[in-house]
Specification:
The complex is a heterodimer of chains A (425) and B (166). Chain A contains 14 helices and 18 strands. Chain A has a five-stranded parallel β-sheet, sandwiched between helices. In chain A, strands 16-15-14-17-18 form a five-stranded parallel β-sheet.
Amino acid sequence: MAMTLSEQILSHAAGRLVRAGEVVTVDVDLVMMHDSLAPSIIRVLHEELGAERVWDPAKVAVVIDHVAPAASVQTAEKQADLRRWARAQGITQLFDVGRGISHPVLVEEGLARPGMVIVGSDSHSTAYGCVGAFGTGMGTTDIALAAATGRTWLRVPETVLVRAQGSFRPGVSAKDLALRAARVLRADGATYAAVEWHGVEQLSVMERMTLATLSIEVGAKAGLVPPGGYRAQGTGHREGIAPAGWLDDVPEWLGVQAGAEYAQVVEIDLDRLEPQVSAPHTVDNVTDLAAIGRVAVDVVYLGTCTNGHHEDMVAAARVLRGRRLAPGLRMLVVPASARALQLAVEDGTLATLLAAGATIGTPGCGACIGRHMGVLAPGEVCLFTGNRNFRGRMGSPEAQIYLASPEVAAATAITGYITHPQEVL
Amino acid sequence: MARVWIFGQDINTDQIVPGRYAPYMLKQEDDLRKYPFVEHRPDFAGGVRPGDLLVAGNNFGCGSSREYAPLALRMVGVGAIVAPLFARIFFRNALNLGIPCFTADLTGQLRDGQAVELSLEHGSLLTDDGRTIQLPPPPAFLREVWAAGGIVPFYRANGRFPGEGV
């Protein structure tokens, strides 16, 4: 019987055939923890579970991205403790301040691969679906258990299929597809389920990450894009994602099977898709940009694991080339990874963004969690390329956050109000 | 008797504990008990009593994986949470911490501040106006974890995960 990608991966990990609805225990291929939750994960691991060591240091990745660089003595001290702990545990895969956000970093490093089961202490761990891995976010205790045992338990999810047809119009991109899906499915539409994104072979690995990360915003346990096809598109390898070649190394047992059962199918016609905007204060509060009216913006923020990739900076630079930011507006660019920043330096993208008046932050999570590097004041309006516009997410609960694509972000930076990219091109 | 606290739908973990109040950001982690719903409902942390009941709308706990959101609720002694649907990560975190979550829609049946008595054993609520509300029984593997007091004591006692090898 045909299986979904989640059923295939979890069957492989469980060592037997499993179907949606079953509760299974599976081996995990990779455990990711970041600086924000690592201190409590380590405490649960040692003090509550009584484990002295992680089960396999080669399969644990530690990333300092949530408050990077440290913003206070407390966070600096906890990061110092974390470095010492990783060394003592023999964990060599520690990605320190400035390397970037865990999700793109683990893909760039070749640690997240097609067919893997990856658990991370971050809800956007659905990101690993961009390479066809079953990535899922968990809390402190679940991650500590996985780090101690190399296993986790979960219910095999049903799958919601989002099927795109056609091709993106100018100024429209993966973010618009993902927000459109959130508009249809709503914030709880895929709770306990996985999302599969079909019809997106034209997207690069990091553009696929935009879809995979936003899968959690409709409640999903995982968000998978069928792996492969990057070489044909000239993406992936071009970006120097290491080690070269592995992206096309898709296990023979993994792929879309005709006749797989989907709990729901959402069809989206890319030929007719307009730029989408998610208005405060829920991600599923989505409308066509054209219907949003004139919304003046104080800050444009380009970054995050959803849309802080090299492709996103390139898309923004294409709009901003030879232009200047609107008077009184500020634009922060926080690359998702050091690699993305390096590429933007090499191809002149960064120079274009700086010439327009944007400024740059250390690769990492930045202000997405409202802790540092661009926290919002009461009454401020932010056009954000990230993934959450919850009240208080980026600072003051009296701030307003609108989510949109990098193309819309750049157009908005020029005019000072939420703007269709075609209006300024 | 316990008090009912009514919440709306799509309550996200940033509303339960904003990221700026994470233990990572605090001088003393125990200070977390001061911050559940610090911005969304400022009277909550000071007014909640051990055993009190949260009754919420759809999709409670959506958003981030931060276990300190349910941990903050446990620190102030929240007795149980009732909602028609829980976001997945929150549900797991609450289960792991031993906070009972019941899947039911009671927002129209109870009022904020109402006094109730919860019987975990019978899965029922007795209200101050004399009604008994039966809560849907959770699956056996969830009850096992509750009975153990959370996933860590469960795993240490049984050497296995819920539902495994049974």
